[in-house]
Design goal:
Length: about 140
């Protein structure tokens, strides 16, 4: 898999933790439309946010460089598509972040995660416990 470049902004909400505002809108449009021209991306994004056509094209080019978007030429027209679908993207981002945090301090990360989950919603600890038990059973079968 091609490495995707992103930054992590924990104070932001949703995909804005990893993407700029316009990048998020562009990716959402591409996830809905599959392969689109720059003009089609612009038309869909500009329904939600006032933005110049050239700005959308610039953002698309930057997203291609970051590995977030694919660009291919078909019949003299460039088509853009998301490198990963939304589910794959979410999994990729969380894996990278969690592996990075675990590399820093595995035991502290696990302890903090449990503390955060118990503060967030105690039911999530039960969910985590059942996921761990399920994973243990899977590993024992191997």
């Amino acid at each position: 898999m091609k490495k995707i470049k992103f930054s992590f902004k924990p104070e932001k909400r949703g995909l804005k933790k990893f993407l700029g505002e316009l990048e998020e809108k562009v990716l959402n449009v591409l996830w809905e439309g599959k392969e689109l021209t720059g003009r089609e991306v612009f038309e869909r994004v500009s329904k939600e946010k006032k933005v110049a056509y050239t700005t959308v094209l610039t953002v698309l080019q930057r997203m291609v460089k970051k590995g977030l978007v694919n660009k291919k030429k078909k019949d003299e027209i460039y088509l853009y598509s998301a490198t990963l679908d939304k589910e794959e993207f979410t999994k990729y981002i969380y894996e990278r972040i969690l592996k990075g945090v675990l590399d820093f301090s595995e035991s502290a990360t696990i302890a903090f995660l449990i503390d955060i989950l118990s503060d967030y919603d105690p039911k999530t600890l039960e969910q985590l416990s059942s996921i761990i038990e399920k994973k243990k059973k899977e590993l024992c079968k191997k």
